[in-house]
Amino acid sequence: VAAAPYGGPIGRDGPCPPGNTSRKEKSPSARPLLEIYSASGLLLASMPWKSGQLVQLGWTASEDLLCIQEDGTVLIYNLFCEFKRHFSMGNEVLQNHVLEAKVFHTEYGTGVAILTGALRFSLATNIDDLKLRRMPEVPGLQKPPSCWAVLSQDRVTIVLLAVGQDLYLLDNTSCSVVTPPGMSPSAGAYLQMAVSFNYRCLALFTDTGYIWMGLATLKEKLCEFNSSIRAPPKQMVCQSPPAGAWSRQRAVVVAWDRQLMVAGNSKDGELRFVLDEDSYLVPELDGVRILSRSSHEFLHEIPEASQEIFKIASMAPGALLLEAQKEYEKESQKADEYLREIKDQKLLPEAVSQCIEAAGYEHEPDTQKSLLRAASFGKCFLDKFPPEAFVRMCQDLRVLNAIRDYQIGIPLTFTHRPAPQGCASEPPPCPPRLVLRRLYPLAIRICEYLRLSEVQGVSRILAHWACYKVQQKDKTDEEVAHAINQKLGDTPGISYSEIAARAYDCGRTELAIKLLEYEPRSGEQVPLLLKMKRSKLALSKAIESGDTDLVYTVVLHLKYELNRGSFFMTLQNQPVALSLYRQFCKHQERETLKDLYNQDDNHQELGNFHVHCSYSEKRIEGRVGALQNALDEYYKAKNEFAAKATEDQIKLLRLQRHLQEDFDKPYLDLSLHDTVSNLILDGHHKRAEQLYREFKIPDKRYWWLKINALATRGDWEEMEKFSKSRKSPIGYL
Amino acid sequence: MAAHLSSGRVNLTALREAGRRELREFLDKCAGSKAIVWDEYLTGPFGLIAQYSLLKEHEVEKMFTLKPGRLPQADVKNIIFFVRPKLELMDIITDNVLREDRGRSPQRDFHILFVPRRSLLCEQWLKEQGVLGSFIHREQYSLDLIPFDGDLLSMESESAFKECYLESDQTSLYHAAKGLMTLQALYGTIPQIFGKGECARHVANMMIRMKREFPGSQNSIFPVFDTLLLLDRNVDLLTPLATQLTYEGLIDEIYGIQNTYVKLPPEKFAPKKQGEGGKDLPTEPKKLQLNSAEELYAEIRDKNFNAVGSVLSKKAKIISAAFEERHHAKTVGEIKQFVSQLPHMQAARSSLANHTSIAELIKDITTSEDFFDNLTVEQEFMSGIDTDKVNNYIEDCIAQKHPLIKILRLVCLQSICNSGLKQKVLDYYKREILQTYGYEHILTLNNLEKAGLLKPQTSGRNNYPTIRKTLRLWMDDVNEQNPNDISYVYSGYAPLSVRLAQLLARPGWRSIEEVLKMLPGPHFEERQQLPTGLQKKRQHGENRVTLVFFLGGVTYAEIAALRFLSQMEDGGTEYVIATTKLINGTSWIKSLMEKLEPAPF
Questions:
Q1: Residue B19 and residue B127 in one domain
Q2: Is there a single domain that holds both residue B191 and residue B257?
Q3: Which residues of B are less than 8 Å from A695 in CB distance?
Q4: CB < 8 Å to A547, chain B
Q5: What's the complex ipTM?
Q6: For A373-419, what is each residue's pLDDT tens digit?
Q7: Are residues B257 and B129 in the same domain?
């Protein structure tokens, strides 16, 4: 048997037929049954247990059932006995088997602790982010410890275990013996231990019936008792109020077969109850749930406000106010007397607050109502009493009453209620829990009632509903997609891609694609489409988004997925993708670039491509060869200018090589202008003249060039000759 | 540090603060001492967001430049790569990581910060190289629009124009749209969007789409901007080619302003102290930051250069008069008051000295014959004179092998002012260029043709005169000292882009439909619905605020012209300027050139 905290559901496995006993015995003949009940005892789901031997059941913080098997496998089921996933606690556990297991909750999430057959502990602090930790060996441990518990201190998870009269503390690296302060030396061997919900308090029970209670840090003793019962208790629960709560009391609840004892540090000493049936204790933040075959009770300390009001013959302001209101309804003048009494002491605000507070702790709507009525009555006689507390209490109670209904069965107490809006970073937990139970309409109504923003409330619920909806196999894809879009529309905060992903997980690819159509964010659409192998659709979605990175991602994906031919064909139809891929090739695969241009007969670009290539050639033949290719392409592209220019360049290169050989000076790679200029500078006037004619250098430029070069050279004789050869086309200044 | 950002109508400090916050958050994620390995291109823009001191406060102890090989020794816990998402850079990072000594202890943790966006492509690339797992944090730093001044934002994306118009790679437009979304998140939804050009249309579409992607986040900020005007650079290819004639524009033309800093020849700035004359002339270039935080600069930056001299001499008189005051200070109170003003006066004096020196440097150039000839040709083209034949001056410049970029600017300018050149003229120029500067420039010429800067006249009709007349792009009676029209920024030519902005504000584009059709790309108008509570009720006399976004770059002269419009008394509109990159003709043409280095034989 296991029950989840915060009034959560109950899971149990028992022999067939179900419901007779809650012991964890398995009759080997019949298949055991795994059953999940709501806290009000309604059967939510059941299934025959087909897997291995179960050692322990537990619930995660998100209300999933953990089934820990003997071989260390942990299976996770949801509230409806639907299998979610499984994980293993490691090889060591597999070999040595699970002896005992505990499920615990810390700020990191839900954890699992295992004691193996080899008497070693293994821990996983958070099952959603599984990191197995094998604790160090306990020296000299020969038999299983009599009792052990998981503690969480300063964000470190440690194990406390008792062997006989010794206590050991196991942390990540070492094992140390500890002694609780103030522990009576004659206390005897430890039989049972319990840690409070918030890991602050620790209770130890020894075989002399002695109970020690102290801080979980083992630094301070809080109190001790003698139960005078030596029998080992069946269960023990330690209770410590949360920080800032009204109560300073700490208590320990010990259950034997037919007896329940409550002991605390208050003056009242201890209380004993008789148990009629086999019972199971569920520790809660503010009390203990007592579960038996026929009933489900909640044992808690009575809050101060309730005590004050309902104590017999109480004269507390709240009690008087309640009385005043009752008299007022009876139209009795006593109402005024009571009211006067409170007002004389100037305690009316306190009275109202007390009534409001006490209403919160009541489970009966009638009592809640009468307390609230009293508060509202008292408020009439006050100026400027801030209304928030009253309004919020009414709201909270309406929600709490709604979910406490036996058909819903989430008996949350007022202390459990979510923090007020605004200071809560997360949305309140009740709608998510309703969603887990597939109680979508109620969840939506609560969100609307609490005026939660759509993104926080309704959208999430609708998204969950849709994820559930896609699993309904009896409807066609069209119907489901239509139904979902009808309900969800453009509700802000809805992620259609998440729903689609779920549909895809259920094997409904077509439905997923239909749903993705409603998704406005391409960044979300594209990865899923790729996963579903709808790459071409993914490509057009990526292009629509304008996010080039997304386009690149799809393009490269396509490149690996398709053969070259169809890859190129796909790109042909998507110019944006094509030009991006060209960019990619320019940097990474120049040869592919050529193929791309070839494919669309882009001769101009092919020509440019060859020009590019020619400049990286290290030999002149290579250079000329590449230029020759460029020349051909430019002709094909009907770019006569470029073709002619390329032809000239080939001619020039060849000439330059001759010059270089003839004069043993570097000429290659100079521009025509510089070649001629250098020739003149070196006095090779004939050769210069030859180039001037061959390449049809305009007269004007040739004159400038020659005059400049001759002047630089200081060759005034040649200059004079030149000046007389023809009339200067650039004048004489 | 950032007072100049809050001086304008829109307080851009908020944007800078948002950027700083994001940076701090990331740095704090990597606990312990850090070294940053910089993609060198990012250091300039980052300097405008956060100085070294901020990095230091967050335990950044060392900075390196990203280059292949082994990372320098540094005893730090974290190595963070600040990079643009480019595959070339990923290869360098891979090399760095693979060469890291695995034996060293303690091990250094690696992280990547992608600027401005995380890229699946890059991560996939790193994964294929087997190093993706080495990075603990891989995050993005959405530095899209960087505040440069109180009314100026730039993405400093150098290759934006080239990518959009030559390579059909619209990545920078996606970043621009994202940047505008960030801006709207901080300054409210911009109710009206106007645009002209293909890229403008694309950006507007993406903005509308992105808004739909987050329907839940209804923006509840009162809109600061009334209008967004998106302009493609290719709608106005002409303006950047002309030589800017404002003070700031000329500084940029001559020395190049990089991320608000300019490097100047040191000679003019030698400290004039007696006794050590000429002993140690500074050899390092003088580096100055130019923004409106400097009072004098704010006053003269946008003036026509011909009007700067008189302001400087007036300032000089005021300052020396102020210093003279000390002789009149008699009482202790007067002296005290004088002394309290001293730091401000001294700052003003050194600012004046700096700008006098800069003005002298510029004057040397603007008074040169060549500058004058060049300008004359530009102005002839822009006013429509002899645009259809080979120009003598250009021919001579080629013959004398003037810098190629200068030639390209002039030829492109002529081509645009003639709606394309006659095939014969075009081929002549091209041949001249190839013969003089080398065949390898054939690819550059091809790029210019693809971008539309250089083209043959195909339609046989020259639209430019119609456009010029309708939009009044050429003003003969320009007043440089006390301008009454934006044409003062080019001493006669009114930048087309700014004229479009001006006409949009009044009387509206409907009046120039015909001309708009002649310019490339669609023009459009979109409205973004505001919740009723946020709709503006304009106070009487309150100016509208328009954000003009130049996709593909903007020049300082255009900025000056928009500032001039903001200041016009009856203008009714104030402008904030955003762009992909601050450009001038030279840097722009350079970005379009194909760098072809012949392999050595």
A1: yes
A2: no
A3: 435
A4: 174
A5: 0.90
A6: 888 888 888 887 888 888 888 888 888 888 777 777 777 777 665 54
A7: no
Residues near A625 by Cβ (< 8 Å), separated by ≥ 6? A614, A617
pLDDT for the residue A31: 63
- The answer to whether the CB atoms of B438 and A671 lie below 8 A apart is yes
Residue, of A610 and A295, whose pLDDT is higher:
A610
Which residue stretches of B155-283 are H helix?
A: 160-165, 171-187, 198-213, 247-255
Domain end marker among B462, B483, B509: B462
Among A492, A579, A616, the residue with its CB nearest the CB of B215 is: A492
B601 in contact with chain A, both atoms CB, cutoff 8 A: yes
Question: Under an 8 A CB cutoff, do B85 and A700 touch?
Answer: no
Considering only the beta carbons, identify the residue of B167, B169, B213 that sits closest to A521: B213
The total number of structural domains that make up chain B: 4
Chain B residues close to A668, C-beta within 8 Å: 601
Which residues in chain B show pLDDT less than 50?
Answer: 274-277
Do B155 and B41 have their domain in common? no
pTM of the model: 0.75
3-state secondary structure B451-475: CCCCCECCCCCCCHHHHHHHCCCEC
User: The domain spanning residue B58 has which CATH number?
Assistant: 3.40.50.2060
Q: How many Cβ contacts (< 8 angstroms) between chains A and B?
A: 138
Residue of A nearest to B426 (CA): A641
Contact check, Cβ <8 Å, A645/B430:
yes
Chain A residues within 8 A of B157 when measuring between CB atoms: none
Question: What is the nearest CA distance from A580 to chain B, expressed in angstroms?
Answer: 6
Indicate whether B411 belongs to any domain: yes
Here the contacts of A302-310 (C-beta below 8 Å, separation 24 or greater) are A302/A361, A303/A246, A303/A247, A303/A357, A303/A358, A303/A361, A304/A246, A304/A247, A305/A246, A305/A354, A305/A357, A305/A358, A305/A361, A306/A358, A306/A361, A306/A362, A308/A354, A308/A358, A309/A354, A309/A355, A309/A358, A309/A371, A310/A358
Interface of B with A in 315-334 (CB under 8 A): none
Which domain covers residue B387, as residue numbers? 370-462
| pLDDT over 80 at A439, yes or no | no
Whether B325 and B413 share a structural domain: no
Chain A residues touching residue B599 (CB < 8 angstroms): 615-618
Mutate to test the interface with A, among B442, B444, B449 (most CBs of A within 10 A): B442
Residues 6 or more apart from A8 whose CB is under 8 A from it?
A39, A59, A63, A410
- Residue B569 is assigned to a structural domain of this protein: yes
Nearest chain A residue to B117 by CA: give it: A549
Taking CA atoms, what residue in A is nearest to B395? A701
Which domains are assigned to chain A?
1-17+29-131 (2.130.10.10), 135-301 (2.130.10.10), 305-547 (no CATH)
Structure tokens at A65: 């059932």
Q: Which of B121, B168, B209 sits opposite A549 (nearest CB)?
A: B121
B399 to A705: CB separation less than 8 angstroms, yes or no: yes
- The answer to whether the CB of A436 falls within 8 A of the CB of A63 is yes
